[in-house]
TrEMBL record:
SUPFAM superfamilies tied to this protein: NAD(P)-linked oxidoreductase
Domain of life: Bacteria
InterPro entries per UniProt: AKR, AKR2_Oxidoreductase, NAD(P)_OxRdtase_dom_sf, NADP_OxRdtase_dom
UniProt domain NADP-dependent oxidoreductase: residue ranges: 16-314
Protein name: Aryl-alcohol dehydrogenase-like predicted oxidoreductase
Organism of provenance: Paenibacillus silagei
Amino acid sequence: MKYRELGNTGLSVSEVSFGTWAIGGDWGNSKDEDGLRGLQAAMEQGVNFFDTADVYGGGHAEELLAKATRGKQDEIHIATKFCRAGDIHDPENYSARRISEYCEQSLRRLEREAIDLYQIHCPPMEILRDGSVFAALDQLKAEGKIRHYGVSVETIEEGLLCLEHPGVAALQVIFNLFRQQPAQELLPQAAAKGAGILVRLPLASGLLTGKFTPSSTFQDNDHRKFNANGEQFNVGETFSGLPFVKGVELAQKLDWITEGRGNMAQASMRWILDHPAVSCVIPGFKNESQVNDNLATLDVPSFSPGDMERLAAFYQSEVVPHIRGEV
């Protein structure tokens, strides 16, 4: 395993870490025993960081992490998120009282005394502009309930605003071959200010595995069906904002990146890790096989400067015109 510093937090995290949205729910049917075996396999191979949220399976993902990491609280770092269990536009949802309640609930499910990284879960811009939420998080940090805090953001503008607050230790962003915009300004600014970068949806909800066809379908309880066009939450969270069929077409045009780099998923995550401002990628998984496949990314060779330029040009000319939602 290879490790990188999570900004200025003092935490060293595995380059390939894992998110737990898929084992918690909203990615189709999953089995707890498969998820637990996947978590165990990841830890056995040196993964020491997992990302979750209080709304993943209504807290079920946090409970699975507690079960998998019992006795390992000092060596396995956990990031969780809050706010989307309530009305994300209501300022009261971000009051010190409410945030404390969210935190206590997550601590109970995680069976921990402190949360390593506590993140605001994609809040609206007006909440970030108000800024009082950061004071509430400073208070939780002073109380020892959280060690560091950060923000999971949807857009570049939100990320840059968050970096103006000195307490923000990390940003969680959508960054992949179909969403390259953060590399231009956000990643350099984060590096300059000592903030870590967690990359979610590195495979664009599976598009960048190269396994889908235009006729692929998803289960009713999979966000790739019920949020394909932003029906339930931000459209950028599903297929990086691309219409599904167009995304499949674009992924096929990237088949060349697999040459000498395993498969498309591994090559796609290698591209992300080739950006030094990135602390780690946090792909999802449902079973041990997917964990092992994602960890093989660590053995994939980096892209050449020429390859990077080719991929940047592809993004601007062929991907950007089809992205929906703010970037």
